[in-house]
Amino acid sequence: MIKKKKIYLIDMKFFKYLPILIFFSCSNASELSTEETESLSFQIVNEKILFIGNSFTFYWNLPSQVEKMSIERGLNWDIKHVTAPSATLEIHWNNPELKSILQNEAFNHIIIQEHSTNPLTNPNSTKFYFDQILSLIPDSTEIHFFSTWMYPSIEQFNTNNELFPIEESINEIVDGTSTKIIPIGRAFKLFNDKHPQFKLLMEDDKHPNSNGSYLASCVIFSHISAQSSLNLSKRYKGLDNKGVDIYYSIVEDEVLTFLQQVSDEVIF
Question: What is the pTM of this model?
């Protein structure tokens, strides 16, 4: 599939706010709240992003974390996600809600995540439904494939003893398209090799804990923005329906820089 070059039209009114935006994007706080990040009425949304995935995507509010990271840097991404527990691309393809969104809304980026076992155990199905979903997406949209991590119960499917078996399978699945792979599984392995004292998975040894989701968020942020994740905040929060602070995720100081450094090492 041949991707068309995107043309951006910039409202000239933007430039009168440029000094303020530069100041805002260079600021760094230990916490970023909804009030702090949404109080400026002149915020400009630069990119619209859609996540398609399952619990590996929605655990610890990963899409919201990525959006908050972008706001912290003055990028102001507008992020939406269509996710469901244990969802495969086949399930997503048969979801009328997703089809309606793809047919009626425009996105700059779409990030697709398949069920973690399918690229290893059923790559033909993954490719078929990936191509079906792709057929609904205009050429002007950049497609990214969220490459998940290996975990103990699926090691048995790594029959060729590859370092990054899921990523290798996805490479074959997206071959012939301009899809970009987001190497989150690669980042997980590198982090585990360098910092085994810190966990990335929950007690089920499968789903990400807050460290794992933060690492994945950093990788996605840097992959799309081409900016380092170093010095991003360690926690992000919004407000619940009663106006009370709610934290999307929290990582501790002792692991924060390690997560950001590994993300940078994988992306740059």
Answer: 0.84
